[in-house]
Design goal:
149 residues, 3 strands, nucleus, plant defense, ethylene signaling pathway, DNA-binding transcription factor activity
């Protein structure tokens, strides 16, 4: 009868029309993030005992968004939180009971730092094209670069 216990619970979840099927790991590689239609990765987290969410920012890489999420969830739930990168969290014992704005600020700082480090390490974007510097539109062209007719 032990086997019937397991099969009855799994069949009841398969028949529940309100439950969404679990996304593939390719669509959502880390906890707490999602990908926008245009390719940016965003992170947000629900505040404990509230319906509101803390917006953690949008990033060009899923790792940066996941690191921002990890920072926020660690400050909200403490060392027992389920993290994407538990080895990357630095525990500061003085930082506890932070406001939502302080958590958002810390998480976006971490995410932006990771995003910048990854952009510097990988100059190619997601599309495979080489990233070019944006020209300063307020600067006059130098004689070497101007075209003579």
């Amino acid at each position: 009868m032990e086997g019937s216990c397991c099969t009855s619970s799994s069949s009841s979840t398969d028949q529940n029309p309100k439950r969404k099927p679990r996304q593939h790991t390719q669509d959502k590689p880390y906890r707490g993030i999602r990908m926008r239609k245009w390719g940016k990765w965003v992170a947000e987290i629900r505040e404990p005992n509230k319906r509101s969410r803390i917006w953690l920012g949008s990033y060009s890489s899923p790792v940066a968004a996941a690191r921002a999420y990890d920072t926020a969830v660690f400050y909200l739930r403490g060392p027992s939180a389920r993290l994407n990168f538990p080895e990357c969290i630095v525990h500061d014992p003085q930082q506890h009971d932070l406001s939502a704005a302080a958590i958002r600020k810390k998480a976006t700082e971490v995410g932006a730092m990771v995003d910048a480090l990854q952009a510097a390490a990988h100059p190619r974007g997601n599309s495979g094209r080489v990233a070019h510097e944006k020209p300063d539109l307020n600067e006059y062209p130098s004689p070497e670069t101007s075209e003579d007719n």
